[in-house]
Amino acid sequence: MKIDHIHFYVEDASASRDWFMQHMGFQALASSVSRHTLTTAVKSNVVYIVLSSPLTSESPVAQFLRLHPPGVADIAFAVSDLEGLMEKAVANGAKVLEPVQQQLLAQGGWKWAKIAAWGSLSHTLTERIGNTPLLPAFLASEFTTKSFPSTEPKATPERLPSQLIRNSELFAGIDHVVLNVGAGDLELALDWYENVLGFRRQQRFTIQTDNSGLRSQVMVHPKSGLQLPINEPASANSQIQEFLDVNQGPGIQHIALETPQIVQAIAQLRNLGLSFLSIPPTYYTQLRLNYPGLPLSAAEFEEIAAQEILVDWQDKSRRALLLQTFTQPIFEQPTFFFELIERRQEAEGFGEGNFRALFEAIEREQMKRGSFPLGEAK
Questions:
Q1: What's the pTM value of the predicted model, to 2 decimals?
Q2: What topology is assigned to 167-369 in CATH?
Q3: Three-state secondary structure string covering 30-92
Q4: Is 5 part of any known ligand binding site?
Q5: Residues 6+ apart with CB under 8 A from 234
Q6: Is 123 annotated as contributing to ligand binding?
Q7: pLDDT tens digits, residue range 282-331?
Q8: One of this protein's GO BP terms (predicted)?
């Protein structure tokens, strides 16, 4: 099982498509129109993003947006045995939103189905045969499809990184997806993903600062290694609770995009106008003190600090490094954001130091927004 594509429900799919192209270097693929919904798709390397917006109040996107701000509505998984997985999912209580359907084409074909997941999230399950198009929606006869030429949005000449990466090569794939659930629901969500989709439990974290906290369990699919951390709030003013309040329920908090050259990628994305969370200089002072043996040259360390990238050193492999950074929320509300991640020397899992540093960085943004009750944040 691996991620096939991510489907966002947004207010204006065309504007969101342009944002992904201009600020993240994605390429436009195609757009389709039904009687009530506009859908468009963009890609970067093997990362596919689908964006849908309502044309009428009958659109399922309109129904979603009446309940939630824009965000991820569906995570589509590519699977090898759709019927077998659906049989198991139904036997373990999954609600079927769309039964198994099939589309045969000259060059192959594919099958797909959709199940309800946690909250308003759904999972489309796909099985491909041969070289088939991206989306079932673009194959449906009720849609008219327009393809777009391949484009490479360019960074401005100022502040260009020394090694410019082609925008189509910025991202190597999706490393993981993070789900936030309500207080007391973590174990129920873990059981659901174990029983229905076959994920297994791996790392577990409890983060507590002077102000707030969270509990998190990393789920991993045993065959593909796909990772799905699931968070619940550990305090009433936790950033997870703020997400749940603003999102009006559980949902996808962020998606981590894998990049082979994170320093160059971040510099290039900053040039495209993408905004990132700030990391204080004291983080890098402490990093030097706590990890004097970091396998980084002085020049690399300075570049990482300049781009405000988090660093986690994995003891069991002295060359393994986990490098991460996080965007500001991409929509008006403080809900969904992207992570960029580089795993050097096959670094695995998640470092607790980086996990805590992310939590504290988002906490600082909460303070800026005044999200903590008066006198509660320090």
A1: 0.87
A2: 2,3-Dihydroxybiphenyl 1,2-Dioxygenase; domain 1 (3.10.180)
A3: EEEECCCEEEEEEEECCEEEEEEEECCCCCHHHHHHHHCCCEEEEEEEECCCHHHHHHHHHHC
A4: no
A5: 183, 206, 207, 208, 212, 213, 214, 215, 240
A6: no
A7: 889 888 887 877 888 899 999 999 999 988 876 666 677 889 999 999 99
A8: L-tyrosine catabolic process
